[in-house]
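MazG nucleotide pyrophosphohydrolase domain-containing protein
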Amino acid sequence: MDMKEMQQQVDAYISQFKTGYFSPLANLARLTEEVGELAREINHEHGEKKKKSTEEPNTIEAELGDNLFVLICLANSLNIDLNKSFEDTMNKFNSRDKNRFERISEKEEN
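Predicted structure tokens:
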């Protein structure tokens, strides 16, 4: 599924509710909350702070999905095409930042 299809699927889901999309500021607050939950899961999995035995099971994958959903809601509410946004960002990285980091040599790849 490409990003356009994801945006359409989220729009179809949100469109069934009278409330519709939350305001951009509310979606930003939701995204911030979801990023915090993702950080917590990464810390449990890869950091020093292990999960308590009383905590509900959760996964990094699930939190990434939640973050993506809210990010798509934010983009849709602002009529932003995420495919174009991503293409523009990759063009920026491939031009402005093309020499910013040391590249892997052909010998290292093999």
